[in-house]
Amino acid sequence: MNNHKNEMEGNFCYDPEFKYTHDNPYHDKLGVFDSFVLRDEEAEKNVGKWKTDIFKNDYPIEVEIGTGYGDFMHEYCQNNPHVNFIGLDHRFKRSFALAKKLDKLENKNFKYMRARGERLEFMFADSEIQSLYYFFPDPWPKNRHNKKRLFQQPFLNAAYKVLAPGGILYVKTDHDGYYEWMKDHLKNETRFEVLVDSRNLREEHPEHFLSQFTTKFEKIFLSQGTKIKSIVLKSKK
């Protein structure tokens, strides 16, 4: 039980000795899709070998942290066949539902991982990723839960490590508090160039790549008049 509690505490997930623990039935159900789904530690066996052993090509690797219902992953993979796309999420039932949809896609230029975003540096080698996507994460709005937010120093360290020179981290959020939290964590950050810092993405950057698609959650936020906040960072490696 203590191990399960530790898994849910974000900072513990950065520990090299971290192990996934759970008894969720959807873990076994995901095994049906083992041709493209990797579960838990399976995702950490391919460090530095994603192109050579998994995708068997030299296309750029692009990773989405927190795929949710897979709207972006589904659309992006089909429109960009010359990328190696990896989506990951740690929610079981949602992962299974998305795997069923991904199994029907024509372009098979992707893998899906039931894994945690905090494990980024244990899943990829230095400079192995070209692009990172982090869209509409759980904002953990209560002050006592802020520590569970992914976007903080350990994550920035990992992102810088795995991103290739000139690699990009794309972020979108509907939550004002989380947006300000991100900006605060970037105040003393010198390893990234800020390409976009917007409180109203659709109005300020209507032609930007990030304004060209709308996820299921994003449609709801926009219908409610919520402004989409965005930060885009470029590695200075």
Number of domains: 1
- Our estimate of the beta-strand percent is 15-25%
Order of helices and strands: HHEHEHEHEHEHEHEHHE
- Assign the structural class, choosing from mainly alpha, mainly beta, alpha/beta, alpha+beta, or little secondary structure: alpha/beta
Q: Report the C-alpha radius of gyration, rounded.
A: 17 Å
Q: What is the CATH superfamily classification?
A: Vaccinia Virus protein VP39
Per the principal axes of the C-alpha atoms, what is the gross shape? globular
Name of the top-level CATH class: Alpha Beta
Provide a count of the helices: 10
Lay out the secondary structure.
Blueprint: H1 2-8, H2 25-29, E1 37-39, H3 50-55, E2 61-65, H4 71-79, E3 84-89, H5 92-102, E4 110-114, H6 120-123, E5 129-135, H7 153-162, E6 163-173, H8 176-185, E7 192-198, H9 201-204, H10 216-223, E8 229-235
Parallel strand pairs: 1-4, 2-3, 2-5, 3-4, 5-6
Antiparallel strand pairs: 6-8, 7-8
